[in-house]
């Protein structure tokens, strides 16, 4: 990025204002130079020398990875810190970057949030470590995510969330409803279920930015175009119209439960069959097994319904990477840990611990795909998840201020769930608010 553009953005406090409420922003003024080269011998020397790597992450499977890494490299200590989940950690991270003090060597960052740090050079471009050679190890969605819409590589994918349709087979069988393969069939199934049981809903939806962007992704919509500080936002393409048209029918006919995900009411509905499906990421099985124990054996997994019959489009819903904050210390040692965790032996450790991989070696392996899930009646659900991961288009882009955009979702699109506003009008309001905000923060944003 051009030096002047970065100064403009920092001068108006873009990252601070748009996401985290911090008081100042950091970043280098190196004029957008190529990432410094760090050789394998540099990394090996760092491992030989030893030291401490501070890792901020909430992913629980990293505890065993850190222990294994320390055992393999006795001179290295991994200081694993849970600084909060998602936005809680981002706020702490931005505060540390602003103060130029206490910045971790490694930080977990979700794909949708990565652009804001990459833009202001808050993250190290791992291209200098030769990370580009690892591209073929990952499924397309996560690898696209760590590139953050640009040319650099700002992290190594840790996990992913290819979407699938989780459905209550017991409920579908009871009412003689076929599992939908298209979204039109999904609407028909919603109507049939509501007619058969007025207390039951095909799914829940009270308005969620992550779900909406994932659905747009699968529908072929590409609402965001990002080229440095030049941004274009538009929700008028065919994919967006397909999604809003279909989902509007579900809302108008009151076919979806007005229940917020992760609430007690949501868990209750999943357990008693009044919420019959979820279109969600492949990380969901563990949440069902722990939070909806009473429905064990009732649920199954199917490919995500398609917008065109016979298609096989997928989308990501969730997922994160391990990154190296620019102001962190011990870069070579930190990279060694990240590569071990996300491209080395640590991957298998995390998969055994319940994480859903972003690496094709695990996704394609017979052991992984043939794993039987007792919760799903012995179904080999990973076959469905792996198929979805392989069919995710890799040209999706998030806004470089997506965290802020998501924060105003309920004030715009969310009105379609509580008033006479349509989803199409809600997306238009979201678009307009996002355009205005971006321009106010120093971006050049067009519709």
UniProtKB/TrEMBL annotation:
SUPFAM superfamilies per UniProt: Periplasmic binding protein-like II
PROSITE patterns: PROKAR_LIPOPROTEIN, SBP_BACTERIAL_1
Matches recorded under InterPro entries: Bact_solute-bd_prot1, SBP, SBP_1_CS
Signal peptide: 1-24
Keywords recorded for this protein, A-Z: Signal, Transport
Family: Belongs to the bacterial solute-binding protein 1 family.
PANTHER family, per database record: ARABINOSE-BINDING PROTEIN-RELATED, BLR3389 PROTEIN
Name of the protein this chain belongs to: Extracellular solute-binding protein
Naturally occurring in which organism (per UniProt): Streptomyces hirsutus
Upper lineage: Bacteria, Bacillati, Actinomycetota, Actinomycetes, Kitasatosporales
